[in-house]
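Board work, copied verbatim: L-threonine 3-dehydrogenase
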Amino acid sequence: MRALVRTDAGTVWKDIAAVTCGPGQVLVQVSLVGLCRTDLAVAAGRIKVKTPRILGHEFVGRVVSAGSDVRRISIGDKIAADPVLRCGRCDRCLGGWQYACPSAEFMGVDVDGAIAERVAIPEQNAWRIPDSLDDRIAALLEPVAACAAVMKAPIGKTQFGVVFGHSRLARLTAMILQSRGFENIRCVPPNEAPTETDAYDFAIDTEGTTDSLTQLVDCLRPGGVLVLKSRPLRPLALDLKAMLPKEHQIFPVNYAEFGEASRLLLDPAIDFASLLGDVWSADQSDQAFQAAENDAFRKHFIELTSVPARPPEARTQHQCVPSSDA
Ligand SMILES: [Zn+2]
Ligand SMILES: [Zn+2]
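↓ predict structure ↓
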């Protein structure tokens, strides 16, 4: 089968051995994969991976085979996935901290991903999606789970909040909050520093830079909540001297529960369509990555139904200019 693989020479379509379905797993015929910053960073070498590595983690497809012990998912189901594979048995997994499982592995980074004709994933990572839902929206499951995680923070619907950032993640976060009754939030792009000082009850950072944290500490009221919703590749500095007198609460958030995220995908109050970019065929994967790199506001997708029959040599060198790591 064909898969888009990060190799030492670049990112290329390769013929690889067909995957099969092990115990507890479902085998998925992939139809569509969304590209996110993690994929761009792997393709461009900003995130180092063990090669060869199949890229991609935001996918939708149909289950074509299932291990005999699989109960919750059936053959024929349309599914999207939680891309973090974990043991499911350790104290953290059983205690609700599965993303901190010592053996947690991220698809497309630590283990092979989903820009492939088929992918096998544990049943616990598969989430059933109604057939009627647009594949492009279904493939947003992981970013929706990531953005909806902000609702874990101790923030209230009537409070005054700021979502800081200029990206689809910032927009999606704000739309999810608004759909949940948060009416008093402002979206501020990073080139417009939040002008309020000591005003906001909570501030959500989606930029992940030292500058963004500095600005948000300044605009939060004493006792305010700083929600960290970005995954910068490098450590950031935090000015504790400015922060301590105001005794801010810092709240890093990772993922909402994926079942909750899959229900959010069906919520007509959230304008997912405004986040959708283009769908590229597999033989346009170069253009797809370039479009995703240039477009911070819309999600771009690769359709897997048209996987190229022959490898287009090693021409797919995604030499993207390193920008923000956020
Ligand atoms: Zn992602
Ligand atoms: Zn575990």
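The CA atoms of residues 1 and 17 lie 6 Å apart.
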